[in-house]
Amino acid sequence: MKCGIVVHGPNIIDSGYALNLINLIKNYGEVEAILGGTMGRTAVIDNSLENIIDITHKRFPSDSLKLFYEREVDVIFLLNYGKSDVTGQVFGYKVYTHFKDKIKENNIPVIQIERPGEDDGTVINWNNLNQGLSDEIAKKLNLRIISPSQIYEKHIKEDEFNQTRRTIHGVSPGENILVNNIVIGKSTSDKITLVAREGIIVDIEGGIIKEHGVEKLSHIDLNTCIVKTGLLRKANVTPRVLKKENNDDFKVAFLDHAGCDVYSYKDADLVVTIGDDTTLIASDILYRFNTPIIGITDGDLDKVVESGFKTHGSIVFQVESGFDDVIGNEIFKIIFNNNDYLEINKNQLKEEIIKIINNTNCKFKVNEI
What we know:
The chain has helices spanning about 10-15, 15-25, 40-45, 60-70, 85-100, 130-140, 150-155, 210-215, 275-285, 325-335, 345-360, and strands at about 1-10, 30-35, 55, 75-80, 110-115, 120-125, 145, 165-170, 175-180, 180-185, 190-195, 200-205, 205-210, 225-230, 250-255, 270-275, 295, 315-320, 340-345, 365-369. The chain is α/β, with parallel strands linked by helices. A seven-stranded mixed beta sheet has the order 3-2-1-4-5-6-7, with helices on both faces. The protein has a six-stranded mixed beta sheet with strand order 19-15-16-17-18-20, with helices on both faces. The protein starts with a strand and ends with a strand. The mean pLDDT is about 90.
């Protein structure tokens, strides 16, 4: 039997369950594992699993399921470790629904293993194919079975008919709310509802909206955007730094959006990052590739990872509140000439940035790592 395994999120990897489950599933046949989503990539690297879990491409979880469908495997497993049973089950419902919309025939079993090791952990057979296998897996893992219809009735049904609203369950008060990796607010309740008008989020019921984050986010599809709450990665980890080849040319990249694929910048020699959250997320990821950053921040930081690492040689400019985007726009226009990459000496780049900041009559502090 050919088994396709989609691993989602850092928690299932950091907990050790991803590797344990992959080894368990090997008892049933030939196994291939790939990552679904993007936030698990640093966890795969830190746990030295890149030869077991394929992280070479950025894919939505539903696209990872579709890849195995196209490879005509006999069964697809979705491994996840949500913040709660509710968030994990709702996540699985949305992934499976998007997957169904992308395929011609729903003829391959899709089995989700959610929060293994927890008292509320579950196994979900999303299309009720090969029920015997999902029952056996649940028994071996001492997890209860929950049906798709139970999840739909309990968590999905009441929200499905209003496409300008999206409810997120299993939230804790005081958590950051991220849409496509941009912080757009903070929760004040255990359930939040995002409200959008013409593709722009205009309200968060059960939360406080962050206007600056919404401006950065701009237009989104509320039904398909990626929504997360709390920390992107909870585990305290020792990051694994990969060896980097030296290039003859010193290539600098520009990054002003935490929702971008930060991994696509890993081969740059230096990355200029704009904004507190973008700088924190990007520097933490790029640390694994020994890539320093020059960050432009204004102190408006929302904690989205437990620890943020920065490569030696990084520089962070903290400017006055509200000026990070202004400075960033000027850097992109004047220094980068509206291009994503350029070749420039690091010291020259630093001086050019200081010149731009001074021209805005903006006070700033410099922290060199």
